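Feature request, filed as a ticket because there's no other form

It would be nice if the structure record came with a short human-readable summary line next to the tokens. Right now we just get the raw output. Example of a typical job, pasted below so the devs can see what we mean:
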Amino acid sequence: MIIALVLPGLASAETLTGVFKTEPGDTGGFLHVGMAPCTDDASLTCGTILRADHGDSSANTGYGNLGKPIVWAMKDRGNGKG
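Raw output as currently delivered:
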């Protein structure tokens, strides 16, 4: 599965925070990814899968990767670019 996060533009190089929705996959399903400073280096961004949805936007509670990291140590370049 290719993941593309939809990220809003940022005015500075601060660490990204918030919940972002991925682009839909082949079946129309998508993920909600919580982005926050990494616990071991707050200057970097990490992301965790918080929720998975089916193509009809209903929760996919059986998704096996809930709670797992999907972004590790992303260095923010500013202006919404990681």
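Something like this underneath would help us a lot:
Residues 18-74 form one domain.
The longest strand covers residues 45-53.
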